[in-house]
Amino acid sequence: MPLTRMGQILALSCLLGLAACGQQEVYGDLPESQANEAVAALRQADVDATKKMAGEGRWSIAVAPEDFAHAVEVLDARGLPGDHFASLGEVFEKKGFVSSPVEERARLIYGLSQELSHTVSEIDGVVQARVHLAIPEPDPLSNTMKPSSAAVFVKYRPGYDLRSETGAIKSLVTNSIEGLAYDRVSVVMVPGRPTPPASTAIGGAAAPWIAAGLGFFGLGGLGAALFLRRSPAQRRAAHGSAPDEPRSLTGTAR
Length: 254
Description:
This protein has eight helices and six strands.
């Protein structure tokens, strides 16, 4: 028996409600420590987030589809997931043929930059940190040594005024690079965006339950519409009751 228009509408509502129960991946292929930090930051912002294993030692984080945009904004404001910085051991890992002196020098400068960026990013309140090194190559035909220099970029979270740490950061970089003078290190600090407020839309921890409730409500309504669509005889048969006895047109004999 074909569905009524009301039944078709209820069926569509049911399907939409059940589809809303799924989650959308925000980031994947993360180490567990970064996944835990991201989930904790999202839950602090009233976004219900979960982590799922995405391989051996790798994890992904997911939220409800209606919370996806807000989750990306929250993690971006917190600088999460954190950047991966290569260590000197990774930079100088032996692969393939022997490197040339020029390549070895470039690797050394890059490795030092990565190590310093990682160290500065560990300061409380730092969202993002970069250290750029300019170390001139010695000229064997010149008696004058060109001075090295360094530039440090720091973006920090609102509420953490790190400008008072400028001197400590300059000292850290100066003492990490041989021959680098203190006054040849520049530090630029900029405040990051504040964490966006929680979305006013229905979402968070209640969204999956609301979506599930709508789905089951749609199923119940669809079942009721199909039941009422049956004939009286079919409804009685479904309840297991006997059909009504035909009434006699004549009275009982006396």
